[in-house]
């Protein structure tokens, strides 16, 4: 298969979808790999390392899309890329369709095969291609939150861990999944008082067992959230419904009950955000303030630590990319249900329920495309 790896062009996105080691593995299986010039520089991988691994370097993004049967990316295509995507071209990346109607319709129009990292799902409901970036984002959320709690950034001017004789900050974590667990660990490690909320009692029991003593668990419901936001200094939103819009757990009216300078970090912003007042921001302009509450809603948080993020992501994506390249997307998805669940849009049809529901679009049965061809 001919595989293209374009340079990410979303603002401040420095990750790359395939490392030189990944190129070498794909080449070993007989595939041709074309990498856009400079694609790996932000993550510390020079063009010459890709050439040494067996890739060919192409000068432009147009050339990379133009030659490839499969495009492997990190972030969803942006408007300038829509016209480059071809009918029947397989695009393997994070899409987060439920947060962008424009992107959804653009990919429907392209008639490409859109296989989304974030909806590849194992039988135990875990999301193997979302987990590594959720781990990074969960840990980063505390770094970012601690920074923006500083008075110079319009925060409360409170040190997360406090000092002798001064109480530490109160951190509220919404969601006990990968993001929430990593955020709570980081905040607790810095000495904050942490409360982590989730709707699953089983998950809360597990967290109660593994977390240090400065982490409390609490059932998530509107009443408890309203109570907790009043005393929180830093609030982390880490709630996820795979492939669908995130639920809005903090409403606009709750902001007026918070302390001035409270910081909210919405890690769920890729899926629309779990705060009513959330809107996507970038690393270049990461925060805004509403009702004296600082909002940090960067949509590609792991892009700020690209070396770590690229290695973590490609460790997970490469085995799936190899299956797609070795077998073709239809056979790979027939034989691997995890990959099949990653299919969101095929040749203009929406085949993933969360996307169809988000934009009130007709849902087509994915098996219509995966049926074995009749042999005559």
UniProtKB/TrEMBL annotation:
Catalytic activity, EC: 1.4.1.1
Binding site for substrate: 15, 75
Domain Alanine dehydrogenase/pyridine nucleotide transhydrogenase NAD(H)-binding: 149-297
Reaction catalysed by this enzyme: L-alanine + NAD(+) + H2O = pyruvate + NH4(+) + NADH + H(+)
A single GO molecular function term of this UniProt record: nucleotide binding
GO biological process: L-alanine catabolic process
Keywords: NAD, Nucleotide-binding, Oxidoreductase
InterPro entries named among the record's database cross-references: Ala_DH, Ala_DH/PNT_CS2, AlaDH/PNT_CS1, AlaDH/PNT_N, AlaDH/PNT_NAD(H)-bd, NAD(P)-bd_dom_sf
Annotated active site: 96, 270
CDD domains the UniProt entry points to: L-AlaDH (cd05305)
KW Repeat (keyword) present: no
Membrane-spanning residues: none
First-level EC class: oxidoreductase
Coiled coil location: none
SUPFAM superfamilies: Formate/glycerate dehydrogenase catalytic domain-like, NAD(P)-binding Rossmann-fold domains
SMART domains: AlaDh_PNT_C, AlaDh_PNT_N
Family under the similarity heading: Belongs to the AlaDH/PNT family.
Protein's UniProt name: Alanine dehydrogenase
Organism listed in the record: Xanthocytophaga agilis
């Amino acid at each position: 298969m001919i595989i293209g790896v374009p340079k990410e062009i979303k603002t401040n996105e420095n990750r790359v979808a395939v490392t030189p080691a990944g190129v070498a593995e794909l080449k070993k299986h007989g595939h041709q790999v074309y990498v856009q010039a400079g694609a790996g520089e932000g993550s510390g991988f020079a063009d010459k390392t890709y050439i040494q691994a067996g890739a060919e370097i192409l000068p432009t993004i147009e050339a990379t899309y133009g030659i490839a049967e499969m495009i492997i990316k990190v972030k969803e295509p942006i408007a300038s890329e829509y016209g480059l995507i071809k009918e029947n071209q397989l695009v393997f990346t994070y899409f987060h369709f439920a947060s962008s109607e424009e992107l959804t319709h653009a990919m429907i129009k392209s008639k490409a095969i859109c296989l989304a990292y974030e909806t590849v799902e194992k039988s135990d409901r875990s999301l193997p291609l979302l987990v590594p970036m959720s781990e990074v984002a969960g840990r980063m959320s505390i770094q970012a939150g601690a920074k923006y709690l500083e008075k110079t950034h319009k925060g409360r001017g409170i040190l997360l861990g406090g000092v002798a004789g001064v109480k530490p900050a109160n951190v509220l974590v919404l969601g006990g999944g990968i993001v929430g667990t990593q955020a709570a660990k980081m905040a607790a490690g810095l000495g904050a008082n942490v409360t982590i909320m989730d709707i699953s009692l089983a998950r809360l029991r597990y967290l109660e067992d593994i977390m240090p003593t400065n982490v409390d668990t609490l059932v998530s419901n509107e009443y408890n959230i309203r109570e907790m936001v009043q005393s929180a200094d830093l609030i982390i939103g880490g709630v996820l419904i795979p492939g669908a819009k995130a639920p809005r757990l903090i409403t606009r009216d709750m902001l007026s009950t918070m302390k001035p300078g409270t910081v909210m970090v919405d890690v769920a912003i890729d899926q629309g955000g779990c705060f009513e007042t959330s809107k996507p921001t970038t690393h270049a302009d990461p925060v805004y303030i509403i009702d004296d509450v600082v909002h940090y809603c960067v949509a590609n948080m792991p892009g700020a630590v690209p070396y770590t993020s690229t290695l973590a992501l490609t460790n997970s994506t490469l085995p799936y990319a190899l299956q797609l390249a070795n077998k073709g997307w239809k056979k790979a998805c027939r034989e691997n249900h995890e990959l099949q669940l990653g299919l969101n849009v095929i040749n203009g049809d929406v085949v993933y329920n969360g996307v169809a529901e988000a934009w009130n679009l007709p849902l087509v049965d994915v098996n219509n495309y995966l049926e074995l061809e009749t042999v005559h």
